């Protein structure tokens, strides 16, 4: 692919990733060896997590693209880095749920955790840590001018398509996809899936109900257990195929 990279300026640093400018409309996304939960109130170094999350994200983006979903992924750089296209990210978090869990059960206590939903549920949240990423009504999104009604329809279809692809992929590997979050960018050619798709953003459980995602850590599990679960996910998903420089 002949990727030449200039040492990049830091564009963004979050809790789990660093994004560096790579020139020509591209960026390097570097996954950190650290884990945080509860808005950063629990935080630990997590050696090996960055690479496991990068490999899994790379593979998940490749899988989505194989199924016709556009993503920002260009190629896997090795280690904890992937090369991506730079996009203006919408200030939204798109969550899809197949089972009731987490904040859904907190807001609707009539639902039992892990109750199978009659159909996948798509939620939009405002990406705003200070406000606790509030759940939005479709009307909120349209009135604020973030998306039009037809874009909302398109985003909902995209989210359901991503769910169908991920759900069936993990089911074939013996895991249930409870829910996940994606972020998107709006482009003249439609939405592009950006950010990451990893154990930090999906909840996946095995046949015994054991989590292989960040829930392990949220529930007080050790960092070692978490990193091992992320490695297991990366192993199950297979190695990234689009390597930079090939
Ligand atoms: O906490 P909640 O039940 O709303 O999370 C739903 C899904 O979205 C989970 O898979 C969680 O890991 C993911 N999520 C995320 N980033 C957030 C909030 C939720 O990746 N800021």
TrEMBL record:
The keyword Plastid appears for this protein: no
Known EC number: 6.3.2.6
MF terms in GO: ATP binding; phosphoribosylaminoimidazolesuccinocarboxamide synthase activity
EC class (word): ligase
Alphabetized PANTHER family for the sequence: MULTIFUNCTIONAL PROTEIN ADE2, SI:DKEY-6E2.2
Protein name per Swiss-Prot or TrEMBL: Phosphoribosylaminoimidazole-succinocarboxamide synthase
Keywords: ATP-binding, Ligase, Nucleotide-binding, Purine biosynthesis
Family: Belongs to the SAICAR synthetase family.
Record field: catalytic activity: 5-amino-1-(5-phospho-D-ribosyl)imidazole-4-carboxylate + L-aspartate + ATP = (2S)-2-[5-amino-1-(5-phospho-beta-D-ribosyl)imidazole-4-carboxamido]succinate + ADP + phosphate + 2 H(+)
Pathway(s) the chain acts in: Purine metabolism; IMP biosynthesis via de novo pathway; 5-amino-1-(5-phospho-D-ribosyl)imidazole-4-carboxamide from 5-amino-1-(5-phospho-D-ribosyl)imidazole-4-carboxylate: step 1/2
UniProt superkingdom: Archaea
Pfam families, per the entry: SAICAR_synt
Natural source organism: Pyrodictium occultum
ATP-binding among keywords: yes
Residue ranges of domain SAICAR synthetase/ADE2 N-terminal in the record: 10-230
GO biological process: 'de novo' IMP biosynthetic process
């Amino acid at each position: 692919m002949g990727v030449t990279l200039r040492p990049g300026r830091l564009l963004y640093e979050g809790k789990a990733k660093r994004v560096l400018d790579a020139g020509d409309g591209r960026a390097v996304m570097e996954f950190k060896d650290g884990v945080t939960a509860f808005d950063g109130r629990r935080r630990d170094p997590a050696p090996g997590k960055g690479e496991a999350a990068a490999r899994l994200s790379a593979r998940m983006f490749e899988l989505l693209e194989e199924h016709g979903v556009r993503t920002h992924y260009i190629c896997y750089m090795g280690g904890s880095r992937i090369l991506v296209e730079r996009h203006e990210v919408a200030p939204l978090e798109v969550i899809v749920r197949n089972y009731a869990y987490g904040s859904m059960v907190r807001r609707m206590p009539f639902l039992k955790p892990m109750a199978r939903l009659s159909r996948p549920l798509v939620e939009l949240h405002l990406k705003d840590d200070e406000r606790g990423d509030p759940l939005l009504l479709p009307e909120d999104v349209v009135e604020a001018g973030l998306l039009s009604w037809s874009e909302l329809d398109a985003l909902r279809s995209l989210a359901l398509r991503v769910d169908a692809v991920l759900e069936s992929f993990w089911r074939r590997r013996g895991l249930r996809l409870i829910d996940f979050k994606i972020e998107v960018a709006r482009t003249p050619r439609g939405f592009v899936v950006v950010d990451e798709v990893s154990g930090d953003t999906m909840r996946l459980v095995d046949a015994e109900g054991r989590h292989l995602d960040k829930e392990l850590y949220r529930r007080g599990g050790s960092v070692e257990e978490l990193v091992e679960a992320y490695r297991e996910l990366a192993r199950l998903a297979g190695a990234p195929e689009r390597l930079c420089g090939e």
